[in-house]
Design brief:
The protein has about 260 residues and is mainly alpha-helical. It has ten helices and no strands. Helix 9 (about 195-210) runs antiparallel to helix 10 (about 225-250). It binds prephenic acid. Prephenic acid binds next to helix 2, helix 9 and helix 10. Prephenic acid (PRE) binds near residues 193, 201 and 246.
């Protein structure tokens, strides 16, 4: 898939291949995170044990904001498949603009699920993938670094729903225009859902987690990335959020081309 070539970006097969590749990135990021305990201090707002001068938020927020400020200058968020967690605070690139063809609707950048993704990551995913419940102050920096990798890979995957939605819209404009005009959210949800594709994803994840998730150095009682956790995260969080993005994108689609 080449973002400079619109045709490759709206080919559903290319999009799904990209989603498959993202599974590996997400699994390996989860595995990195699984080497550390949960460390709630990293996610606590204004924690007295971790003072952050002139900042109102958690240590992870602080690290993510500063990472995004640097990455925005490196042109990360110029790319149509990247969505910032701090859209109000990112900076202009120091590299020259790349003129990507516009493949998504003009409002696509406004669809931003990152606050929700971060909340669910901290509340539901970290407890599943961290090594054990507990603190390890010498690793706060490493944990924030791996959390950022996990969050960015989840964000990219979930917001890819915009490309999926646009491809589906282009493939059957008549059907989607009717559903959108009727604000038929259930009808849109039904039509974007492909149970066979979802089943295949969960099957593949089971195999991948079996193969990649084994850590022979783990002590008894330590958690690891099991197929069960990975399937749960995809089934209950990643796929439903991707579908939410798809539905929101489609509901606004008629405003962009009548
Ligand atoms: O591949 C698609 O058609 C998608 O819409 C993506 C996705 C997913 O999140 O992986 C979401 C909904 C479908 O039911 C199948 C898969």
């Amino acid at each position: 898939m080449n973002f400079k070539e619109a045709d490759t970006v709206l080919d559903l097969k290319n999009i799904r291949d990209e989603l498959v590749r993202m599974e590996d990135t997400i699994i390996f990021n989860f595995i990195e995170r699984s080497h550390f305990p949960s460390c709630p201090v990293v996610y606590a707002k204004d924690h007295p044990g971790l003072p952050l001068p002139n900042f109102d938020g958690s240590f992870l927020d602080w690290a993510l904001l500063h990472m995004e400020k640097v990455q925005s200058q490196l042109r990360r968020f110029e790319s149509p498949d990247e969505t910032p967690f701090f859209p109000e605070e990112i900076l202009k690139p120091i590299l020259p603009n790349i003129n990507y063809p516009q493949v998504l609707a003009s409002y696509a950048q406004q669809i931003n699920y990152n606050a929700k993704i971060k909340h669910i990551y901290e509340e539901e995913i970290v407890p599943l993938i961290s090594k054990y419940e507990g603190d390890q102050s010498e690793n706060y920096g490493s944990i924030a670094t791996t959390d950022i990798a996990c969050l960015q890979s989840l964000s990219r995957r979930i917001h890819f729903g915009k490309f999926v939605a646009e491809a589906k819209y282009q493939n059957d404009k008549e059907l989607y225009r009717k559903l959108i005009r009727n604000k038929d959210v259930n009808g849109i949800m039904q039509n974007i859902t492909n149970a066979a594709v979802e089943e295949k994803i969960l099957e593949r994840l089971t195999t991948k987690a079996d193969v990649y998730g084994v850590d022979p150095t783990n002590k008894e009682g330590d958690r690891r990335i099991t197929p069960e956790y990975l399937v749960k995260i995809y089934k209950e969080i990643v796929i439903p959020l991707t579908k939410e993005v798809e539905v929101e994108y489609l509901l606004r689609r008629l405003g962009d081309d009548a």
